[in-house]
Design brief:
Blueprint (H helix, E strand, L loop, with lengths): L20 E5 L4 H12 L3 E6 L9 E5 L5 H14 L5 E4 L14 H29 L2 E6 L3 H4 L5 H21 L4 E8 L5 H8 L4 H10 L9 H12 L10 E4 L12
Helix pairs in contact: 1-8, 2-3, 3-5
């Protein structure tokens, strides 16, 4: 089994984001927290957004907001600009799910998941892309999932939302390219987060469910939030200045060997 890289150090960590403002949604845990901390380590002033504040971290400033609500997002954007300045990097990691198939998903639950996972990404573009256009530079990174590529039986609304993020990425990348604003999408497989653990806990034997999931990844382990953060920071950095509209799978090889039943 391969081992995860040292999560405390990012490759080429040379303050790539010094004096830049970055905004991260879903920042209180999982991938969003790892991205926020990594950006701060590399010099960014981070506006970390979630329903509640996460752990105190140097360089990370907490903003509590429901990013799926239009008026709340407008007020959040005003507060961030007033406190920190306009972000040049926006990472959308906020997400919710429901473990239901298509016919079993109530209308209200389907709508809730789309609002948090997709509509909020649209709001982020609406609120923060105009200032980037004036500067002539900026980067968005949207966290989707391989379920947005292959679907996910039993997680219908979630997989639909992640597929929509992939399409939004491609569309916005084309629309904003002339302003030198890049939009990219990251599609992880199973990353060891509270949301993933919740899926295991639904099974009679959570430990077995975790082990069977691990076996779906040819590299022999689940991903870590830091694995994803490494890729996100690259895509948001000047090192990726000729990359836009991409869908980047980070999955330990799972998409190549995808199967739903062991």
């Amino acid at each position: 089994m391969s081992e995860p890289a040292d999560s405390s150090v990012l490759p080429n960590a040379a303050a790539r984001f010094r004096n830049r403002v970055a905004l991260v949604t879903g920042a209180a845990g999982g991938i969003g927290l790892a991205v926020s901390r990594a950006l701060a380590r590399e010099g960014a002033v981070v506006a970390a957004v979630d329903l509640k504040a996460g752990p105190a971290t140097e360089g990370v400033h907490w903003f509590c907001a429901d990013v799926s609500r239009t008026e709340t997002m407008r007020e959040l954007a005003r507060q961030v600009r007033h406190s920190l300045g306009d972000p040049s990097v926006v990472v959308h990691s906020a997400a919710v799910t429901a473990f239901l198939d298509t016919l079993a998903t109530p209308y209200e639950e389907f709508e809730r998941i789309q609002r948090v996972n997709v509509f909020s990404a649209y709001l982020l573009l609406q609120e923060f892309a105009p200032a980037m256009k004036q500067r002539g530079a900026g980067a968005f990174v949207l966290i989707a999932s391989i379920t947005g590529i292959v679907g996910a039986p039993g997680m219908s609304a979630y997989s639909v939302s992640k597929g929509a993020l992939i399409t939004l990425t491609r569309t916005a990348a084309l629309e904003l390219a002339e302003a030198n604003i890049r939009v990219n999408c990251v599609c992880p497989a199973s990353v060891d987060t509270p949301m993933l653990q919740a899926s295991f806990d639904r099974h009679p034997d959570p430990a077995l469910a975790r082990e069977l999931n691990r076996r779906r990844h040819p590299l022999g382990r689940l991903g870590t939030p830091e694995d994803v953060a490494h890729l996100v920071l690259f895509l948001a950095s000047d090192e990726a200045s000729w990359i836009t509209g991409g869908t980047y799978v980070i999955d330990g090889g799972a998409l190549l060997a995808r199967r739903w039943k062991d």
